[in-house]
Structures are given as structure tokens and as C-alpha cells.
Fold this protein.
Amino acid sequence: MLKTLVLTLFIFFSLQGSLFALDWIRLHEKADNQSLESALEESRSDPSSMENLYVLGLVYFNLHRDSEAKTAFSEILNRNPGIIEAQWGIAEALRRQHKIEEAKVILNKVIMDNPEFSPAYISLAYIKYILMDFNGSVRLSLEIIQRGRERSDLSNFTRAYSMYAGAKGMIAHYGGPLSKAVNGLAVKPNLEKAFKLQPNSAAVLFGLGSYYFLAPVLAGGDKNKAQDYLKRAIEADPLFADAYVRLAQLYKIRGDNKRYEFYINKAFRLDPENILLLDHKSGRCKFICIGGEEKVKP
């Protein structure tokens, strides 16, 4: 009898996280279509609802209010440490705050505990990209793409195509002629797939703008199209620092110093630790050279 009770308790606590698993696909898609005022109202109307608190954290992410998002996810974990989705929320907040190593540890654990949770793969793919492990970024993104749309929320499924395209572009950039041909050809088609899924996504518009800015003319490079897409990215998300950096780089090579200073300073005010900004300001140019700067190999 005692052995049976011990076994039952062991199974219960082992499965505690899954017993309280959230319907994350539905909640992510709800958050993408909800205002902060509405999310706050729902959270206040039912303070015991972890679903409402999770959605609030996601809405804060959409508004780049990462510290407040982290507070919301921390509150969920205070109530139930086994909720994997909230563990991811903490890791994503750390990633956005440039605490990469801390975020990476949590994300690897989240994926191990719940291999079906797509957002963790995308967050880790971003980290792999920042660390110049572009092949790792491709693998994680491709995992989500191959699963299909029904096993992910729309935004993370779209991000998988964008990240896959961006990482393939970097592999092509650092590779030889064969790599440029094989990997380079994967960039634009996957960005176009992302665009069909979410044409108003700032991340997708930024990806297309970066492609047209950085690609050679023979491969479809077009500075005017680049400017258009990057400006549209800023219109879609005025707090998206990466888009300001790329647009500043575009004006730099055009010799428009006034606009260059405006956009680069805007990026600095938004996120002084932004990886693309620091890469540009340092002149190391790890993420593609634009004017004869030194190319740093991964």
C-alpha cells in the first residue's frame, strides 16, 4: 500500500508541469490580436487566471515592454513553477535584455521538457544567429517549418521562415561559390513565404529590406526597394531597433549623413545594446559588410 502511494505521488509530481500546461497556440494568437488595455482588463477581472496573465506577458512583449513581461511570467511561476510556457517567457525576456547565456540554459531545458513548444525553438534560433552559429539557427527554424502550420502559432511559424532565410543568407555570405549558389538561393523564396503569411510583420518587412539592401544587383539587390521595406518595418513597429540600424546603413552608403545620424541615434535610444547596432558602430561587421569594412568570420 505504501509503495503504491509513493509511486502515485512520484507520478503526480513528475507530471505536474504537463497537468498545468497552457493552450499556448491559442494564447499566442489571441495576444497578437489584443490590445494592452484589453489584456490588463481581463487579467484584473480574474487575477487567478494564469492564461490571462500569460496573454498579458505576450502583449507586453509585442510592445517591447520586456521587463513588465518578465514580471508577468515570474508571477505565473511563483504560482506554479512547472508551467513551461512561463519558463520560456522568462528566457525570452532575458534574450531581449541581451542576457544570452542565461536565456540559452532555460531554453534548452524548455525544449527538452516540451519538444512541441515552438516559441522556444525560435528564441534559441535567434541566439544561435547572434552567436554566429548559423547552421544551428537553420536547424531550429527548419524544425518548426517541417512540423507545419497546425503545430505552431502564426507568428512563430512566420518567424521560422524569416530566421531560416536570414541564417541561410549568412551561410552564403561566409561560404564559397557553391555555398553562395545553394544557400543564397534559399533566402528570397523563404522571405516571400513569410510575407504571404504575415505581410504586415515588422520582422518580415525587415528581412525583405535587408535582402534588397545587401544582395548584389545580379541577385536582385535594389536599394530603393530596401528603403521602402525598411520604412514599412518601422511603420509596423516603431520600436524595432534593427530596422533603424539597417536604414541608417543604407543612408550612410548613399552619403546622406543627416538621415544616417537620425536613424542610428534613434536605434541607440531604443536599444543601446542592440547587436546589429554594436556590430555596425564597432566596424567589425560580423553581420555583413556594407562599405568595405572588415569581415569577421564565424
Summary: Residues 91 and 268 are 23 Å apart (CA to CA). Residues 1-19, 292-298 have pLDDT under 50 and may be disordered.
